[in-house]
């Protein structure tokens, strides 16, 4: 494959299929050059070992506006996540970033997520009840996939879930690649930042036991703690990541498991496979989005090639997750696969802090649907599903189902 013909995002036959180009890139051109929607060029990695190694290297971090890195979005349409231009930002590098991760990470332990599980299950059951009462066909994303993670992350942050429509618009603008204009993005960012600043000020005045309140209280007890800007950026970042990506993954997981009825039937016959099925859905997801970008501040050797300092690298985790060198039968969905060291949450010093939360939500949703709606099926062919367009993250616009 001539890598100069490579343009991201790569085309697929359906929203759940991998791009045909991945296999050839892994075999013949593991360090490719790809054109981004902005017109800039980046290095594109598709092999598991290369992606894992680069993401694990603390020297290489997410690009910011100051780096002069390759831009993802065309001029005037990129949100803060695409451009690195947020008005307030989480510390992105070195010890300040690791200190932030330690503070916030204490709230996202597997033990704490287990304690939240019964409440998530009750919420999932209530949402499924409402969907069943409305009748088929229904949009599983709108009925369950979107509201469940929104309610959960709002509860964790102590913000009202009633504002979820605004959160959705703000999140999409934050993640925009080509969906919004510069004016729309600037307006949304001002509104989002002001909203979270008011919320942080209220927490300062009267701390509560949610995540932001705990960060404030712990910081005061330690004689320091995060600044208001860091708290605002933390709230904004977690609100976007805590509902957008999980809502998308719930829809894609349902599509993968219902698109091939034998997968759903196997889970009905053996619900003990829910945990491994969730992990395999995360590995098998080909519609994750652009992947993670890293800016090389110095030369790096990748797959025997020297990639020069100043390069921007796009690490395609979903392509790496289909690498036969790392996963036997990589192009088959094995619901009992173990171990499953997929890279859906990244790896290393910048891996997803909320992965225990996401896993718990996905497991709860799958358990609830298997138990409450065993006859669930897609209401359209897999080819009729529509991909979310114009954002850094991948997803389905809706997941039509019947039972």
TrEMBL record:
Entry keyword set: Heme, Iron, Metal-binding, Monooxygenase, Oxidoreductase
Domain of life assignment: Bacteria
Annotated PANTHER family: CYTOCHROME P450 BJ-1, P450, PUTATIVE (EUROFUNG)-RELATED
Family matches, as InterPro entries: Cyt_P450, Cyt_P450_B, Cyt_P450_CS, Cyt_P450_sf
Biased composition (Low complexity): 82-92
CDD domains per UniProt: Cyp158A-like
Co-factor requirement: heme
UniProt family annotation: Belongs to the cytochrome P450 family.
Residues covered by region (Disordered): 65-98
Keyword Iron attached: yes
UniProt cross-references to Pfam families, sorted A to Z: p450
Classification via SUPFAM superfamilies: Cytochrome P450
Protein name: Cytochrome P450
């Amino acid at each position: 494959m001539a890598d100069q013909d490579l343009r991201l995002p790569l085309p697929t036959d359906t929203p759940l299929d991998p791009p045909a180009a991945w296999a050839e890139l892994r075999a013949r051109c593991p360090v490719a050059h790809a054109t981004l929607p902005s017109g800039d060029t980046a290095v594109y990695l598709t092999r598991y070992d290369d992606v894992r190694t680069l993401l694990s290297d603390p020297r290489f971090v997410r690009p910011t506006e100051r780096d002069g890195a390759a831009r993802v979005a065309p001029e005037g349409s990129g949100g803060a996540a695409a451009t690195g231009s947020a008005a307030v930002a989480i510390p992105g590098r070195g010890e300040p970033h690791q200190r932030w991760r330690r503070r916030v990470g204490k709230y996202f332990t597997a033990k704490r997520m287990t304690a939240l599980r019964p409440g998530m299950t009750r919420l999932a059951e209530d949402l499924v009840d409402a969907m069943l009462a409305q009748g088929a066909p229904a949009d599983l994303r709108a009925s369950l996939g979107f509201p469940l993670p929104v309610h959960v992350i709002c509860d964790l942050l102590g913000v009202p879930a009633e504002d979820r429509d605004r959160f959705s618009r703000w999140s999409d603008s934050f993640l925009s690649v080509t969906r919004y204009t510069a004016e729309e993005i600037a307006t949304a960012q001002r509104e989002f930042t002001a909203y979270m600043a008011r919320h942080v000020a209220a927490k300062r005045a009267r701390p509560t036991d949610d995540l932001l309140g705990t960060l404030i209280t712990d910081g005061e007890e330690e004689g320091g703690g995060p600044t208001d800007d860091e708290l605002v950026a933390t709230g904004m970042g977690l609100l976007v990541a805590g509902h957008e990506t999980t809502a998308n993954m719930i829809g894609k997981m349902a599509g993968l498991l219902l698109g091939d009825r034998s997968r759903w039937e196997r889970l009905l016959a053996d619900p003990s496979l829910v945990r491994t099925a969730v992990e395999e859905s995360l590995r098998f997801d080909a519609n994750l989005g652009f992947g993670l970008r890293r800016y090389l501040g110095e030369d790096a050797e990748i797959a025997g090639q020297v990639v020069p300092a100043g390069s921007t690298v796009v690490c395609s985790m979903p392509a790496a997750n289909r690498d036969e060198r790392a996963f036997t039968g990589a192009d088959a969905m094995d619901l009992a696969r173990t171990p499953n060291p997929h890279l859906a949450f990244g790896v290393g010093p910048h891996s997803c802090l909320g992965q225990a939360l996401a896993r718990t939500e996905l497991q709860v949703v799958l358990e609830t649907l298997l138990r409450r709606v065993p006859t669930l099926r897609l209401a359209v062919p897999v080819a009729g599903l529509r991909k979310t367009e114009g954002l850094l993250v991948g997803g389905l616009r809706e997941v039509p189902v019947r039972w």
